[in-house]
C-alpha cells in the first residue's frame, strides 16, 4: 500500500502530555499552551479531561480552560469524558467532540479503571447515547494494543474485538495506543491488518509512546498500512507510569519532520510548533523531548 498524501495530526499534549506531570501546572500555562497550538495549523487538539481531580489532579480546571481558550473555526477541541458526570461537564463547556477509552488487556483495565473490559464498555453506553442526543461526536481509544505491563503481549484479535465494539457503539474514529511503547514495526503492521477487518482503516488512528525509541518506525509502518491519523504530543510531553523508563508520547515535532521528509501534507507549521513546545518546557522546567526541537533550537 502506498503512503497517504495527507495525514491529520491529533495533538494530545495538553491532556495526555500534561496529566502525569507531578508539579502543579497553572491554568494560565495550560491556556497559553492550547492557544499556542491553535496558531500552528493543527486542526485537532485534545485539551483536557473531565475526570475526578482526586485521580488525575492535573486535569482539574478543565472546564475553566475550555471556556477561556481562543477557539478558532475549523479546529476540534476535544476532551476525555469517561462517565456521565464528565459528559455533563463537557456539555457545559461547549465541547463538540468527546473521547472514551478502553483497554485491550483485562489486567490493565482492572488496575487502571477497576473493572473488566466488558464493564468499561457498558459504562460508555449512556455517554454515547447522550452524545448522540446533543450532536456530539465521539472518539474511542484502545490502550495496550501491542503489550501490557501485566499481561505481556496482547493478541491483535483481542484489540480488534475492543476496537470493533467501540466503533459499533458509535465512535467515529478509534485510536490504537501502544501505552507502554513496546511495539515494533512488524507487529504494528500486523495489528492494523487485523483490526482493519472490523474497523475501516480510514477510521483508525495510531498513538505510539516512544519508550524503546520505536515510535517513528512504528508510525511509518502503519502509514504503509493505510493509516492517515497520528496522535502525538508537542515536545514529547507525557510519560507512562506503568513502564520503567517510559519517555512518553512521540513528539509532534519529530512526527512532522518525518512526514515533511516523506512529502506528506499536514498543514502544520513546524517552527511555530517548536516555539510552543519550547515555551511549555520552560514553564515545566524540563528538557524538550523532541529531537527535532533540540536540533533546530
TrEMBL record:
* A Pfam family assignment: HMGL-like
Per the UniProt entry, the Enzyme Commission number(s) are 4.1.3.4
Domain spans labelled Pyruvate carboxyltransferase: 7-274
Tell me if Membrane is a UniProt keyword of this record: no
The pathway where this protein functions is: Metabolic intermediate metabolism; (S)-3-hydroxy-3-methylglutaryl-CoA degradation; acetoacetate from (S)-3-hydroxy-3-methylglutaryl-CoA: step 1/1
- Select a single GO molecular function from the record's annotations and give it: lyase activity
Asked whether the UniProt record includes Transferase among its keywords, one would answer no
State the family named in the UniProt similarity comment for this chain.
Answer: Belongs to the HMG-CoA lyase family.
- For the protein in the UniProt heading, the enzyme class is lyase
Name used for this protein in its record: hydroxymethylglutaryl-CoA lyase
- What PANTHER family does its record include? HYDROXYMETHYLGLUTARYL-COA LYASE
Alphabetized InterPro entries for the sequence: Aldolase_TIM, HMG_CoA_lyase_AS, HMGL, PYR_CT
Question: Which keywords does this Swiss-Prot/TrEMBL entry list?
Answer: Lyase, Metal-binding
- To which species is this protein native? Pseudomonas asuensis
Q: Which reaction does it catalyse?
A: (3S)-3-hydroxy-3-methylglutaryl-CoA = acetoacetate + acetyl-CoA
Amino acid at each position: 500500500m502506498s503512503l497517504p498524501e495527507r495525514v491529520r495530526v491529533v495533538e494530545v499534549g495538553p491532556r495526555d502530555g500534561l496529566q502525569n506531570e507531578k508539579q502543579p501546572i497553572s491554568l494560565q500555562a495550560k491556556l497559553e499552551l492550547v492557544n499556542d497550538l491553535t496558531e500552528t495549523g493543527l486542526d485537532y487538539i485534545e485539551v483536557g479531561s473531565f475526570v475526578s481531580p482526586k485521580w488525575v489532579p492535573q486535569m482539574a480546571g478543565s472546564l475553566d480552560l475550555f471556556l477561556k481558550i481562543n477557539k478558532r473555526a475549523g479546529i476540534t477541541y476535544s476532551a476525555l469524558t469517561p462517565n456521565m458526570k464528565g459528559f455533563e461537564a463537557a456539555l457545559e463547556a461547549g465541547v463538540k467532540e468527546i473521547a472514551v477509552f478502553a483497554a485491550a488487556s483485562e489486567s490493565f483495565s482492572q488496575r487502571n479503571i477497576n473493572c473488566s473490559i466488558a464493564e468499561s464498555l457498558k459504562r460508555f453506553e449512556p455517554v454515547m447515547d447522550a452524545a448522540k442526543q446533543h450532536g456530539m461526536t465521539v472518539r474511542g481509544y484502545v490502550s495496550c494494543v501491542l503489550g501490557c505491563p501485566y499481561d505481556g503481549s496482547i493478541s491483535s484479535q483481542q484489540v480488534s474485538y475492543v476496537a470493533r465494539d467501540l466503533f459499533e457503539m458509535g465512535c467515529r474514529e478509534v485510536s490504537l495506543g501502544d501505552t507502554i511503547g513496546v511495539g515494533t514495526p512488524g507487529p504494528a503492521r500486523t495489528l492494523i491488518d487485523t483490526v482493519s477487518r472490523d474497523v475501516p482503516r480510514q477510521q483508525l488512528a495510531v498513538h505510539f509512546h516512544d519508550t524503546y525509541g520505536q515510535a517513528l518506525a512504528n508510525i511509518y509502518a502503519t502509514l504503509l498500512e493505510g493509516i492517515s491519523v497520528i496522535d502525538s504530543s508537542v515536545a514529547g510531553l507525557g510519560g507512562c507510569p506503568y513502564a520503567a523508563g517510559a519517555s512518553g508520547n512521540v513528539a509532534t515535532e519529530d512526527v512532522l519532520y518525518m512526514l515533511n521528509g516523506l512529502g506528506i501534507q499536514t498543514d502544520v507549521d513546524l517552527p511555530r510548533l517548536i516555539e510552543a513546545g519550547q515555551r511549555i518546557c520552560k514553564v515545566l522546567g524540563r528538557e524538550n523531548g523532541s529531537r527535532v526541537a533540540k536540533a533546530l533550537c
